[in-house]
Each structure stands twice: as C-alpha cells, then as structure tokens.
Amino acid sequence: MEEKRTFKLGDRADQMCLTCKEERGHVVASISKTGKVTRVSCPICGSRVPYRAGTTQRASAKTGAPYDRTRTYRRGQVLVHSTFGEGEVTAIIEPQKMDVLFADRMRRLVHANA
Fold this sequence. Notes:
4-stranded antiparallel sheet; single chain; mainly beta; 5-stranded mixed sheet
C-alpha cells in the first residue's frame, strides 16, 4: 500500500509550472486546516498556483552534475549534492551565494568560491 506524504510549509512538492512550462519542484505556500496542500509557489518564476494532487513526476531530462563549491552556477541549473541529493538553483543571491531547492527544503549554498 502506498504511504501518503505529509507536507509542511516550505517543503518541496513537484508540479508542472504553467508559467515556465516545465515540471519542477515548487515550494509549499499554504496548507488547509485538514493538512492538505492548497497552494504552491514556483521558485523560478515566482508564480503562486493551486496545488494539483496526483501530479506524477517524470524522469527528469536534466541530469545534475555533482555540486562543486568552486564552480559557478546559474538559475535553473540542476546539481547533485552529496548530502542533500538533487536540487535546482532557484536564485543567485550574491556573487558567491545561491538558493537551491532540494527535496526537503530550500538551502543557501556557496558557489564560485575559488
């Protein structure tokens, strides 16, 4: 029997982004009193849309390269961290800081650190 996952605010939920026209991890933005996800936010385009339960995750066409703090990343790039797993760069904060959305939550990492 399949176990249903419970979400919290800030968790990652995969869904097709209608604005970006790409399936990606969205950030849970609101939850109903019964504990169901009601709205999610796309970390790339910023759109906030209703959550559609039952969205299936396709095999990703993007394969992430291993995370390397000396490498420079750009928004939308997929990487694989040794501890956190696969993540997608959602924003470049400063020349050497970026936000990455992993399966569990958003994390701030360094990059281009020579």
